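Dear colleague,

Thank you for sharing your sequence with our group. We've completed the structure prediction you requested, and as agreed, I am returning the results in plain text so they can be pasted directly into your records. Please verify that the sequence below matches your submission; if there's any discrepancy, let me know and we will rerun it promptly.
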Amino acid sequence: MSNSPVRYLEPSQIRAFRHEGSVHPRIEVVDEFVVLSAVVKRVFPQSHPRKYISILESKGKEIGILKTLDGVDEHSRGVIDEELDRRYFTPRILRIDSLKSEAGMWRFNVATQRGDTEFFVRNWRDNAHETSPGRWQIFSVDGARFEILAIDELNERSQRLLDQLL
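Please find the predicted structure tokens below.
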């Protein structure tokens, strides 16, 4: 374990680029150095998804943390947002169209921000967690994550269907 202190980076120091065909973005700390294959992670993905963004070398060595993305130039922010979205993609459930118990699992047919989908959940108590009041994270049998941001904001039918599980 490293004893080196955390280095906080200023948003104005950061320039991010994605070259065609590259897996990871290139991130420059202006007037210091360039990380050719950077990894971007959220330090607190649930409680502060827009704050405390860790920038690492591809081998995992942290080069610094951005306390906020506010102040990062528009292009760089787009590259970082795209990378975070790819890493933390969790479809948000907007509506539950049907919920049925089948062969010891629950079959969900839902609408998400990316379209309609179907997934299965085995053992609801082990695979669904209330991360804050009314906010739920659900893990399907194939390892995908889904999220309900606020149960009370779902339509009445969706809430009635969820009552079977809660």
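Summary note from our side: The helical segments are 74-87, 124-127, 156-163.

Kind regards,
the structure core
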